[in-house]
Amino acid sequence: MAQPVRMGVTLPVPPDAQATLRLAEWAEVEGFDAVWFADTGELDALTLAAAVALRTQRVRIGIAVVPVYTRTPAVLAATIATLAQLAPGRIVLGLGASSHLMIEGWHGLKLEKPLTRVKETTLIVRQALKGETTSFTGTTVRSNGYRLAQPPKAPVPIVLAGLRANMLEMAAEVGDGVAINLFPQKALPKIMEHIRIGAARAGKRVEDLEIVCRHQIVVTGNPAQARETLRKRFAPYFATPVYNRYLAWCGYEEAAQTIDAGWKAKDRAQTAGGLSDEIIDQIAIVGSAEHCQARVRELIRGGVTTPIVACPSPDPKEFQATHDAFRPANFPL
Questions:
Q1: pLDDT (tens digit, 9 = 90+) per residue, 100-137?
Q2: Tens of pLDDT along 133-178?
Q3: Which end of the chain is more exposed for a tag (fewer CB within 10 A), N or C?
């Protein structure tokens, strides 16, 4: 069945748990379809998701994405089953490999065999969420004899994060959807083609998959300042090996080389300087409400079914203006 377009809002609002709950309640009242957590370590996404589940009645609650290295498959299954009791039929689980910065730097773990780890974790978690006793021994993870006492009554969709070709294709083949992130807009057709290839392997249509994307958006009268905020925010991401190779794969090889060289030299100016205004405007959406709305509509036409507003601006007025621009009353789908 073809996926509907669903408009979402990004949570949490770091580092404030109460602000997160207020934004979730506001999003539900305003008619947004979903709230989506980014599990990036500033606030624990899964803990807050439980709080949001108890403070809302209707919105879907998605996590895009939980790194597969930081929680075992059994822990993930137990957590999602708990959330599914608190918000029946409203939970969406996103899984991904994350990056070297988070997995090796923050957590002190090895980011090894990411495609296999994501796939095998998904298979175990799905087995457990169906109420089956786990029986899986893979290359990267294993689980045997684990069974949920009360599995979710409604199926929990699992979306998988993908960047380049192999992961995108596996995500479409194995997942119920694909989460994409921080891509230059001109690379979307290439991304969707690999999703189409993966879906076909499993006998699925790309239209049947939920395509989730968190869009970095700032509605502002000062685009130059917003670009500088985004440049500083993006530079550490695109300096990590995973995202650096991704930027090159998307067609910006020279920029990726500049960022990599600057990061290795510990030259912040060179690192950030690799992200030109043109690249920032390809990856992020900055400007008037009308401009930002038009860009998101282009991405929806390109295949994104679940656009999620993420406003990185520290300015409360820009933050509110960005979310206001995508209220269903102002942005009918």
A1: 888 999 999 999 999 999 999 999 999 999 999 999 99
A2: 999 999 999 999 999 999 999 999 999 999 999 999 999 999 999 9
A3: N
Beta strands in 26-137 (DSSP E): 34-37, 60-67, 91-96, 135-137
pLDDT for position 33 = 98
Distance CA 247, CA 256 (A): 6
d(CA 193, CA 127): 29
Tell me which residue of 20, 39, 14, 6 sits closest to 308, measured CA to CA: 6
Q: What φ, ψ does residue 263 adopt, rounded to 5°?
A: -65, -45
289 confidence band (pLDDT: 50, 70, 90):
very high
Please name the residue that has the structure tokens 């917003």: 226
Does the pLDDT value for residue 295 go beyond 90?
A: yes
For the chain, the residue count is 333
DSSP 12-47: --TT-HHHHHHHHHHHHHHT-SEEEE--SSSS-HHH
How far apart CA 6 and CA 19 sit, in angstroms, is 23
Q: Please enumerate in sequence order all residues whose Cβ is within 8 A of that of 192, keeping only pairs 6 or more positions apart, or say none.
A: 206, 211, 302, 303
Nearest to 55 by CA among 15, 84, 82, 20: 20
Burial of 27 (0-12, 13-18, 19+ CB in 10 A): buried
For residue 77, what pLDDT band results from cuts at 50, 70 and 90? very high
The pLDDT, as a whole number, for residue 40 is 84
Nearest residue to 10 via CA among 29, 28, 35, 33:
35
Q: What is the pTM of this model?
A: 0.96
Residue 201, number of CB atoms within 10 A of its CB: 12
